Amino acid sequence: MKILLIGHNGQVGWELRRTLAPMAEVVAVDYPEIDLADTSALRRLVAEIRPSVVVNAAAYTAVDKAETQPALCHQVNAAGPGVLAEAAKAAGALMVHYSTDYIFNGAKQTPYVETDTPNPLGVYGESKLAGDQGVMASGVDHLIFRLCWVYGARGQNFLLTMQRLAREREQLCVVQDQMGCPTWSRLIAETTALALKQVTQSTDRSAFNGTYHLAAAGFTSWHGFASRIIELMPAADRKCREVVGITTAGYPTPAKRPAYSVLNCDKLQATLGLQLPDWEVSLRQVLDQP
Ligand SMILES: NC(=O)c1ccc[n+]([C@@H]2O[C@H](COP(=O)([O-])OP(=O)(O)OC[C@H]3O[C@@H](n4cnc5c(N)ncnc54)[C@H](OP(=O)(O)O)[C@@H]3O)[C@@H](O)[C@H]2O)c1
Question: Whose CA is nearest to atom 44 of ligand 1?
Fold first, then answer.
């Protein structure tokens, strides 16, 4: 099996590169050697590599900056994945793509299921939704994993930001009225690999086509997540003594975010037999690493 992995320097992509290595020849590329906004380059890349699986972990993920760069964001997150999916179909490849909880408006008060109606609040969510639709419309065999609040020991993420701020400041103010499922990038990669194994060994891989919510079990607020991160830091390592809960209104950002991003992952369990542990269990494992 030959896997073309796009975005190997990102949080999820970096974990995928090592996790997929034992199951296939992995050809890993990232920006700037490949630009999702350059659709001709994408077609050339797939035609040249001729992969049996295309995994796209690359995306324009700067949620706030997207509000002032809508054209670029749509080119990277919507047009790019659509063309990549067409090229994958032409090569007979299966495509794995990642979606986001930000395609929902967060007005629900029970966990979102895959069939809930999307209604993104910002440019990033709109562009990601259009990307999902492009992948589905291409007719390629596909798995779209919809993620939530990704973090890990590497990359730009909430865990590392909170740890840095806790070393610098005595008090942190963190939003307490947005709920989600903090999900470890490594578990996303491992779940992807286990799903790919099943689907590629199946006699009818198209039976698995669709979108799957893939997130940690349980949920919390950004304030709850920050508080747990800081509690788990050695006391000698941190200056922070207090994490104050604030409202979204008290922390204005250019892009609106959903107030409730909790994902119901029953479909992943029922179809592929895969489920993630509670977010707090994974957080401890990330922090236990040397
Ligand atoms: N992070 C989250 O909380 C979250 C939540 C839900 C869903 N997701 C989705 O999960 C997937 C992986 O996210 P992540 O957190 O791993 O992202 P990430 O850490 O921001 O990594 C994204 C990767 O894409 C690359 N990239 C950016 N623009 C590109 C372009 N024009 N062409 C090619 N590559 C480009 C980046 O390169 P540079 O670093 O050079 O820009 C980076 O290597 C994405 O589809 C994202 O939308 C993420």
Answer: 59
149 lines ligand 1 (CB under 6 A): yes
| Strand partners of residue 179 | 221, 260
Residue where the block lists tokens 């973090």: 151
Q: Which of 12, 3, 10 is nearest to 183 (CA)?
A: 12
State in Å: Cα 11 to ligand 1 middle.
7
Distance 229 CA to ligand 1 centre (A): 23
Give 73-100 as a DSSP string: HHIIIIIHHHHHHHHHHHTT-EEEEEEE
* Mean pLDDT within 70-79: 98
Residue 102 known to be catalytic: no
Can you read off the two tokens belonging to residue 275? 């489920």
Query: What is residue 251's predicted lDDT score, i.e. its pLDDT?
Result: 87
Give me 155's structure tokens: 């990359």
Q: For the whole model, what pTM was predicted?
A: 0.97
Tell whether the model's pLDDT for residue 290 goes beyond 80: no
Architecture of domain 2-155+184-217+263-278: 3-Layer(aba) Sandwich (3.40)
